[in-house]
Specification:
With 399 residues, the chain is of the alpha+beta class. The protein is built from 10 helices and 10 strands. Strands 1-2-4-3 form a 4-stranded mixed β-sheet. A 4-stranded antiparallel β-sheet has the order 8-9-7-10. The chain has a two-stranded antiparallel ribbon with strand order 5-6. It is globular and about 65 Å long. The two termini are 30 Å apart.
Amino acid sequence: MTSATHRARAPRTTHTAALTAEAGAEPAAEPAPAGTGVGVGTNTGVGTGVGTDVCTGTGHAPCHHGELLQGVFLDADGRRCAGLVTLPLAGPGSRAEFVRRPGAPPEALTVVPADRRKAARAAALAVTECASQVGLPPCGGELRLTGDVPMGLGMGSSTSDVIAAVRAVADSYGLRLAPDVVARLAVRAERASDPLMLDARPVLFAQREGRILEVLGPTLPPLVVVGCVLGGGAPVDTLALPAREATDADVREYERLRTLLRRAMATGDVRLLGRVATASARRGQRVLGHPEFKTLTAIARRAGAAGVQIAHSGAVAGVLFDPAAPGDLRGRLRRCRDALNTHGIPTTRTFTTPATTTPATTPAPSLTTKELLDGPAHRRGDRPAGPDTPRRPSRLPAL
């Protein structure tokens, strides 16, 4: 990571939001939870060390495409924990710039756009953490966020903002925080966090505790995913969803699916992975109740897909294909997209995994780039929102 000192810029007219007293009153950072120290978070841009001048740092974080598995699992001590396994998505993400102003009071921390309160809270927590590590008093600054992750679809838009903010603050101190520290700060900032700080590694992650329950492997098996949105892409208010306590039978079923997913990862069995994802998605319908779910699974079955996955806290979904399966993969993908659109389930982008090594625009075996990118969202192009543009909860495919 390159270090340099930036001069103060000319003032800009912005919408700002001072941090709440609650954010400013957070206690000192507690010890990092055990079992999370895998992977290394990646910062982009430059950090400025620990001088007394105005310092700028930048950070980036990806998003995801909903979950492959989500439920209640047992940790190593036999304790119940809410956990999830996300489907990584390369491409969209959040970018953050933090201008640190030594000498300014910590409460003088603003965020642009002004509605990113979780990111502002994360930045304040990160300032306390980083200042403590380098032996400086906490200070204020300005956090600016841009990105192209749609809100309300279950793609981790708020976590992406939070992690980008934490990385930008750390970068301004010339630091790169370990993933377990980033996870701890993210959970404190938004109560539950997706595992986006782990750089697409497939893990079973306790989202409310910020710790890894199990590392499932180095990468996902190769998949081709036809993305779509249910409910016309209307945002889901996760706080308004009915709470449902997991029974002993639920936990036993989630543990069974966990065992099957572990086997699918170890053997590269896409069909088995698809069965697990479909079973998890079906269980999620007891709360989400998407009316198109039966149609989605029927289309996947007719198209020869391995299964389906959904965002358990949103509307985004995907039909999972095995690129190594015999037959005409192009034709299966085309028939799947046509059927989804015909039945009023808008398609978004078709992408490949594993995202750790294969960009979303890289074709899978026997596919061309055009065929991967011919969804309606790609014909329009992906344009990041400006820093003063609030991210809009779109009802249309916004990927």
